[in-house]
Amino acid sequence: MIEDFINIEETVSKSLDIISPNEYFPDVIVSKDICDPDELENLASWAVENFLERDPYREITYSDAGFDLRKDYMVDFHNNFNRMSGYSHNLRFSDDFVSNEWGAFDVETKEIVLNSNLLVDSNPEKVMKTILHETRHAYQYFAINYPDKVYIDDDTLKAWKDNFKHYISPELDYEAYRNQPLEKDAEDFANRMWNEGVAHAA
Questions:
Q1: What is the distance in angstroms between the CA of the first residue and the CA of the last residue of the chain?
Q2: Are 190 and 129 in contact (CB under 8 A)?
Q3: CA distance 81 to 41
Q4: Closest to 164 measured CA to CA, from 156, 172, 174, 153
Q5: Which of 87, 110, 120, 190 could serve as a FRET partner for 18 with CA atoms 20 to 30 Å apart?
Q6: pLDDT digits (tens, 9 = 90+) for 106-149
Q7: Looking at residue 123, what DSSP letter applies?
Q8: 28 backbone dihedrals φ, ψ, rounded to 5°
């Protein structure tokens, strides 16, 4: 889910005037002129693989960890991936979500906020997929602001940009929310990266 869409058209139009990616995306690796989507996906699936391979050797595994330690593990997972991609800023958990909302990417702060209830499950799959889902939203937002920095076809970029301007919140129409371009892409990305990471960690 993406937050702060009250003035999204104004936000997008303002962001298009940004001179340097470092102003809104100070952590983005800009040593390369273009973000290679294959490299980005390799980083994401590797982050999943790395977390799952390390977990059995932790002093306290994720499934045995308490609430606060699970939170630390997930912040570490996000930071591990984000350190190499840089499209989102920090990750935090909140108790302010309704029961069927799991996370959000804030386009103003570039912060990912997740529902604390995700940490109740001893299996990290859902929370990790949600992190991947929200980081994909961060990438989408970067892509529409810096189309010359990404390998994304024009039709997809236009669909994403239009969707950012006319985003459908889940409380308004859940089916339409799930089927809009931004959400379908983010869900597909999260599922593929999780499955690839699991396969490589096996």
A1: 30
A2: yes
A3: 10
A4: 156
A5: 190
A6: 888 889 999 999 999 999 999 999 999 999 999 999 999 999 98
A7: S
A8: -70, 135
Contacts of 45 by beta carbon, 8 Å cutoff, 6+ apart: 192, 193, 196, 197, 200
Task: Give one DSSP letter per residue of 162-192, joined into a string.
Answer: HHHHTPPPTTT-HHHHHHSHHHHHHHHHHHH
Residue 51 structure tokens: 């977390």
**Cβ(27)–Cβ(82) below 8 Å:** yes
Question: What are the Cα distances from residue 94, in Å, to 29, 68, 75, 80, 103?
Answer: 28, 12, 13, 21, 9
Give SS3 for 88.
Answer: coil
Residue 104, amino acid: A
- The phi and psi torsions of 88 (rounded to 5 degrees) equal -120, 165
Structure tokens at 59: 């002093």
Largest CA-CA distance found in the chain, in angstroms, rounded: 49
Query: pTM for this one?
Result: 0.83
